[in-house]
Amino acid sequence: MSNDRIIIDSLNRKFRIPSPTNLSEAPNDIRIARKSTPWRIYFNMLGTVLPAFFLLYTSLFMMIGIINLDPFMTLTGSICTLPLMVILFRLHRPKLIHVKLALPDDEGKYLHPLPNGGSLQTNVKTNFTRFIIRDDSVLDIPPSKQLWAFFISVISIGIIISFIFFSEFSQELGIILFIIVAIPLWLIGFSLPVLAWWGTSTQFLGLPTRRRDAESWLLAGMAAAFPAFFFNSFAAPALIPEIFPQWANDLCILAFSAPFCEELFKGAAVAIFLPSIKGPKHGFQIGFTVGLGFALIENFQYIGMSLLGGPLGITLTILIRGIGSIPGHAVWTAITGTAIGWLAKDIEFKTKLEWYARNWAIDAVDIVEGLGIDVDGDGDLSGYDDARFDFDDMLSEAYSKSLETEKSWLLVDNYGVLMNQFDDTNLSKIDTFDLKNISVDNINKSNLPSNIFLPKSIFSALLLAMLGHSFWNGSSYLSEFLPEIFGLGPGYTALISITWSVILITSILVIAIRLLKEVKIIDVN
Predict the structure, then answer these.
(1) Residues in CB range of 233: below 8 A, 6 or more apart
(2) What is the tens place of the pLDDT at every residue in 392-438?
(3) 390 and 515 assigned to the same domain
(4) Domain for residue 38, yes or no?
(5) Are 269 and 292 contained in the same domain?
(6) From residue 187, how far is each of 194, 297, 300, 312, 314 by CA, in Å?
(7) Do 284 and 376 fall within a single domain?
(8) Which of 196, 218, 220, 390 is 20 to 30 Å from the Cα of 88, by its Cα?
(9) d(Cα 334, Cα 203) in Å, to the nearest integer?
């Protein structure tokens, strides 16, 4: 009552304007529905990758300026980099939601003032509360069948335009059509396959995923492309002996440097999420998504360059990268993510990491306050004043702590009808039983997929990922180089290269499908 405002009108009448209800803590059992907008994630992805790609080159420009001690290049690169970083931070800033909740209550009121002006009037007495929560809505991706149908349509359009382009009777029409659809074909071709694989893996694994978590994994994969790009641009060429011919130089970059640094940095991107990883299946999901984020940046460049090859060149590049290179990046990183997931199941290890992190933070406070800066704002320079963390107590708490209850989010359609998070008819065939409640001995092993070796050691997983990546890159290069060395004509060279590409793509698709099947039961092994 004391915070209510009193106003007096011209007739000397007093009116009391009640103050808005103060913010309170959100209930633990609240469930919030949100209208399903499955294609929104696609446009968010496009809005992220475009500034991220240009940021890659502006930062490279700035790095060259620093290396060459060129203040103009450094300053120009910095000026161009800053707005791109602002755009990315703004796109991915934490999203908060102001929830206003009115529940029937005989002791409540009919009218509730709102903080931004106006009021809420109810037909019955209600108790009004409001609180701020973080947007933890579930990941909403279009059905995988729909995504792959769009991908096939893009390839079909590219093939049709290619026929028109190379036809003697309609070449001019083909050129006009290609000019019209070139940019849309580029933008859709580099991004839609990534979303299709993302939707397929997420729906198949069936793990409820928060949208902000999934976007952060994808963004981490994009960020991993930056150090890998710099390593391949500066460090790798410097390590290759100058006496090497050009073909050996290219082979070293493709088969050794790129697999080593790319898988290493992608693995590091997955490791950032170690505190939140729940197990090997979750680690596989994060690794797969990080790999897709990396492929998204790489795709933008490769498919953009393929525009110079006309409609046939860009169509073949979209097809090969869409069903080959993209799942390749995802699979290799998923292997590393699975190993990190096994490590995450070690409660003692995770608790030790948390204990070290907290103690390092405490030591930092002690050091800063020792320099005369009151960093904790307590009015003295005595360092960290609260109780220090005991490892045994933290470990005991970690073992006894149950899973944290999170606020549930639901998806509804345009008519308010509740939707499944993964709206796919095949899901009923996939999740027919709950493996967590079935012992391994009771599972019919004949119905399970044959295992593919998934190492639990992070070192072994990284090595396997690097070897797989190296074999893909190296053999692809040699399938074009060796026929030329042996004097085969362009026709035979192209045939051998295409045949080998088909073999590689088929192999990676088989591996990806097998791994997705295996990882569904990996937590019970």
Answers:
(1) 60
(2) 666 666 656 544 444 455 665 565 555 555 543 433 333 333 333 33
(3) no
(4) no
(5) yes
(6) 12, 12, 8, 16, 11
(7) no
(8) 196
(9) 16
User: 361, 382, 400: which is the final residue of a domain?
Assistant: 400
In a domain, 308, yes or no: yes
Beta carbons of 327 and 508 less than 8 angstroms apart: yes
**Cα separation, 162 vs 330, whole angstroms:** 30
> In this structure, are residues 21 and 112 in contact, taking their beta carbons and an 8 Å threshold?
yes
Flag whether 1 is in a domain: no
- pLDDT higher than threshold 80 for residue 520: no
Residues 292 and 340 in one domain: yes
Burial letters for 41-60: b for 16+ Cβ neighbours within 10 Å, e otherwise?
A: bbeebbebbebbbbbbebbb
Same-domain pairing of 315 and 386:
no
Q: What is the DSSP string of 450-470?
A: PP----SSHHHHHHHHHHHHH
Task: Note the helical H segments in 68-117.
Answer: 71-91
DSSP for 130-146, please give it. EEEEE--PBP----HHH
Residues 6 or more apart in contact with residue 484 via CB below 8 angstroms: 493
What is the reported pLDDT for 332? 92
Residues 6+ apart with CB under 8 A from 177: 161, 164, 165
> Range of 260's domain?
146-345+448-524
| Side chain identity at residue 292, one-letter code | L
Reported as a pLDDT band with limits 50, 70 and 90, residue 334 is: very high
Helical pair 40-67 and 71-91, crossing angle rounded to 10 deg: 160
What is the Cα–Cα distance from 8 to 294, expressed in whole angstroms? 64
Query: With the CA atoms of 60, 64, 84 and 333 taken in that order, what torsion angle do they form, in degrees rounded to the nearest 10?
Result: 20
Verify that 335 and 475 share a domain, yes or no: yes
pLDDT at 471: 93
Q: Find all residues with CB under 8 Å of 494, minimum gap 6, and list them.
A: none
Cα-based torsion angle of the residue sequence 208, 212, 217, 218 in order, rounded to the nearest 10 degrees: 110
Task: Give the chain's domain count.
Answer: 2
Backbone phi, then psi, for 474, in 5-degree steps? -65, -45
Cβ–Cβ < 8 Å for 113, 19: yes
Lookup: tokens for 24: 């309170």
Average pLDDT score, the chain: 79
Q: Please check whether residues 267 and 178 belong to one and the same domain.
A: yes
Using CA atoms of 461, 462, 466, 467 in order, give the dihedral in degrees to the nearest 10: -40
Domain match, 377 and 323 both? no
For residue 35, being part of any structural domain is answered with no
